[in-house]
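Morning!

As promised:
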Amino acid sequence: MTKTIAYATKAYATTGPAIPLAAATIDRRQPTAGDVQIQIQFCGVCHSDLHFARNEWGFTQYPAVPGHEIVGRVTAVGSGVKKFKVGDTVGVGCLVDSCRTCPDCRAGLEQFCPDMVMTYGSMDKHLNAPTFGGYAQSIVVTEEFVLRMPANLNLAAAAPLLCAGITTYSPLKHWKVGPGTKVGIVGLGGLGHMGVKFARAFGAHVVLFTTSLGKVADGQRLGAHEVVFSKDERQMAAHANSFDFILDAVSAQHDINAYLNLLKRDGNLTLVGAPEKPLPVAAFPLIFKRRSFSGSLIGGLPETQEMLDFCGKHNITCDIELIHMDQINTAYERMLKSDVKYRFVIDMATL
Ligand code: NAP
Ligand code: ZN
Ligand code: ZN
């Protein structure tokens, strides 16, 4: 096997759970025959970036470079690349590789592959070094994990589709949300606001649950038919036993049982939020009415491209606040206070 050569690229990294992100230099591999090199133009800021930067999930290795909502321009392609050429506008989400042969990969569900390589926090098979995310000037990704961006969408506002978009689109599709279903979306953050937009676009009756009174009007503007202030028990009780499906996109500790009680018989609550600590689930809300509680992880490559194309066709993008790279630490603090409308996106030209 020939040795893969690395090159240096500018990035923003953290060196410990309590250390602010700062300018750094990282190694990327020189594009191999199957690789696409991308100049990153915009990168969304997912709450997972914050969980990871602060080692809330317990597997972070430092230095760490977050960022998995990546869009940019192709600057080089390897000799074997067929799908992309220099100048194309492309995206990269949470995955940059997988084994390609296991049943999950063959089903286009690469996110469940036992050997999936995450955009950050995994090992680069070529360099045998940690993968680094999109808070950087460039990235090199095997062509199968590069996505085509619809030309009609604002590129900065489309960046968060690569994680917030697919993470909400996929479970709504899997649980067959559409006309005639009543759907709840819990938490109006980056994921939640896309959940509202997709559930509405799929034709469901959409109810948003928020802990922020200041987001009620936005909930309706974004597509919710009803908005529930979830700290008001009376408003919650009014929806008891009525939902076919609830998507929970909350990043922190909260009472999941309060939402299970809102499901109909055989209704499902899917958790996409990934809080640091376990969420206690009581038996009774599940065993009465045969309700189910499940999870969902991003989406595979084919479905991610399908979601991007759907957004292109229906003109769906994210509501974003564009920031400079050096505002990232403040952005994290605001995200912790649920003070984001509704996704920070970094203008990588400011790196
Ligand atoms: P975000 O933008 O910070 O939004 C989270 C929202 O949760 C907040 O805006 C807030 O909405 C609500 N919230 C926050 N703290 C709360 C609390 N203590 N009690 C009740 N509600 C609270 O985060 P995000 O980027 O959308 O990510 C959400 C979660 O999904 C994170 O844990 C992230 O790691 C995870 N995630 C999972 C996947 C996956 O594949 N499963 C993919 C991406 C992200 P309101 O103000 O409306 O209440
Ligand atoms: Zn994410
Ligand atoms: Zn696999």
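The pocket of zinc ion (ligand 3) is lined by residues 98-99, 102, 104-105, 113, 115 (CB under 6 Å).

Hope this helps with the figure draft.
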